[in-house]
Amino acid sequence: MLLNLQIKDFLLIEQLELDFFSGLTVITGETGSGKSIIIDALMLIFGAKAGTDLIRNGQTQASFSAGFQVDNQKVQEWLQERGFIGDDQENLIICRRVIDINGRSKAYINSQTVTLGTLKELGEMLLDIHTQHASIVLLKPDTQRSLLDQFAGASDLVLKLGELYRKVNQLGNKLAQAREFSQDLILKQEILGEKIHELESLSLGEEEWESLLLEQKQLANASFVLQELGLVTDLINGETSSLTDLSATMSNKLVKISEYLPNADQVIKLTESIEAEISELEHELNLVANKIEVNPEQLAIVDSRIDEIYSLARKYRIMPEEILPQLARWQQELSKLVQDTDLAVLAVELKQAEADYLTTAEQISEKRKAAAVVLSTKVTDLLHSLAISGEFKVQLSSSENWTANGIDNIQYLVCFNQGMTLQPLNKVASGGELSRVALALYVTLSINNPPELIVFDEIDVGIGGGVAEVVGTLLRQLGQSKQVICITHQPQAACCGDRHILVQKQSTQGQTQAKIEYISETERIGEIARMLGGINITSTTTSHAQEMLGSALKIK
User: Fold this and answer.
1) I need a surface site. Which of 240, 423, 435, 455 has the fewest CB within 10 A?
2) Residue 239: its pLDDT value, please?
3) In sequence order, what are the residues at sequence separation of 6 or more whose Cβ sits closer than 8 angstroms to the Cβ of residue 428?
4) How far is residue 279 from each of residues 228, 244, 249, 283, 367, measured CA to CA in Å?
5) Please, are residues 168 and 349 in contact by the beta-carbon 8 Å criterion?
């Protein structure tokens, strides 16, 4: 939903800031007052071509800014994917464009510089503008297809079909690649199989490499370790100056003088503890020495195994500890190659995927055909109430090409006078009539998907009286599910607005400006009276305007 619009130094606008609301907002004003400025500004923000002549006289640039609250999930995802909003941010965006006197243009979304193409893509999701010359969204084939699918209740099936379509393409590409490169793939499979066989033949255990290195270290240094342990044992209990003898001597001397020492018992216990620790140390060293064996034969076996592992690791340019992870990767790669080169299996999978696609596509086609009849009838009936005596038709034809959206060609056809030939909607020249077709379509569909804002520029050109009143009623009805902005010349349509913006041209100090503002209910009566009676507004005209507004309010 459009929340706010700011315009600076654009044509008759020096500076304008305007808030917008849900429902139907009507814009009125005398011819030439600048009623289309708001629509022109929105079109410029979202990528319309701009010349330097639109910059207000005496200024160097014109700027435009529009704030939107984005409620549609699809648009939110689009913004999140491109980093314009975060997952935890409010869904508010500001779209801005600046055009300078040299014809250069800068565009922004939430202060991030973007291309005009990006703004245009976003604009096609946020709003649909119908002017006397163009419609941004409705004429696109994808929009016409999407609207029909929503009316048919087939949108979820179309999403499923898209997944099946991608699966068919993936399997088709995989099968074609397998056929083209089958010999290369088989050769690669054989080479990979040989590598795997060689690594598997090594029969390397999970922690074998680390255990081998530790065992080799112990075996290679066994003699040295035993020699050093012997020296330590001699120090503990040798023939001369052993720790055992020194401890015993120390204990005896302390016993002799114990009667003269304070705390003698504690001192003697400490010396006895030292003797016990020395004895325990000697025992543990003997146990360790008994476990160490000088075994050249086992060392040779361990060295041979280490050399075998090193040799294979060097062959494949990896470290010994990487052998098992590499084996797992090759086994996984081989498994995938086997699957990819199994042409028969791939062909069966592709055939099944194609059958699933066709079944779903045909279900969608049936839903579309049934919905097309109903939609055509309802829109045609609404067009008749809008002074269009012709016909609207949704035409479906089978397509030879499969797409992510199905096997149907969908085209909206219309003729504006009874008996005339139906023509594609994008071939219709009249902007007013095209806008009324769009109004009838949107009212019939009552959708809650993009676009959230629909803008009509003079939808009621060439009509009046009861038809203008029907247009106003339908616009208000559409405003219950969409935000609608409409420029109108018809008082009957203007009365139906939830809010009313008046555009007036005024001159101050030799400068002409457009004054754009919301008007009160009292001011609104005066504007409706002007639209009814022109220059000379009588009490009867004012009374009529008041009555029209009152009647419209009751219909609300």
Assistant:
1) 240
2) 67
3) 414, 416, 434, 437
4) 18, 8, 15, 6, 96
5) no
Neighbouring C-beta atoms of residue 370, cutoff 10 Å: 12
Give the distance, in angstroms, between the CA of residue 495 and the centroid of all CA atoms in the same chain: 41
Question: What's the DSSP call for residue 240?
Answer: S
DSSP secondary structure string for all residues of 385-399: HTT--SEEEEEEEEE
Q: 443-448 — which CB contacts under 8 Å span 24+ positions?
A: 443/382, 443/474, 443/477, 443/478, 444/151, 444/375, 444/378, 444/379, 444/382, 445/147, 445/150, 445/151, 445/375, 446/481, 447/147, 447/150, 447/481, 448/481
The residues, ordered by sequence, that sit 6+ positions from 131 with a Cβ below 8 Å of its Cβ are 36, 39, 431, 457, 458
Q: Using CB atoms within 10 Å of the CB of residue 418, give its burial: 0 to 12 exposed, 13 to 18 middle, 19+ buried.
A: exposed
Average pLDDT, the chain: 86
Residue 208 has a pLDDT of 86
Distance (Å, whole) CA 161 – CA 359? 10
| Burial class of residue 556, CB neighbours in 10 A (0-12, 13-18, 19+) | exposed
Q: Which residues of the chain have pLDDT under 70?
A: 87-89, 132-136, 180-185, 238-241, 339-342, 429-432, 447-450, 534, 554-556
Residue 389 has a pLDDT of: 86
The first and second tokens of residue 49, run together, are 């071509």
Q: Where are the alpha helices (DSSP H) in 396-519?
A: 431-445, 465-478, 491-494
d(CA 440, CA 430): 16
Helices 155-180 and 323-340 cross at an angle (nearest 10°) of 100
* 121/102 Cα distance (integer angstroms): 25
Helices (H), 407-464: 431-445
Contact 413, 426 (CB under 8 A): no
- pLDDT value of position 400: 86
Q: Specify the pairing of strand 127-130 against strand 453-457.
A: parallel
- Per residue in 441-485, pLDDT (tens digit) is 888 887 656 678 999 887 777 777 788 888 888 889 888 888 999
Q: For 138, phi and psi rounded to 5 degrees? A: -60, -25
Residue 234: which H helix or E strand, with range? helix 222-237
Long-range Cβ pairs for the range 81-90 (8 Å, 24+): 82/118, 83/112, 84/109, 84/110, 84/112, 85/110
pTM value surpassing 0.70: no
Q: How many angstroms separate the CA atoms of 375 and 148, rounded?
A: 8
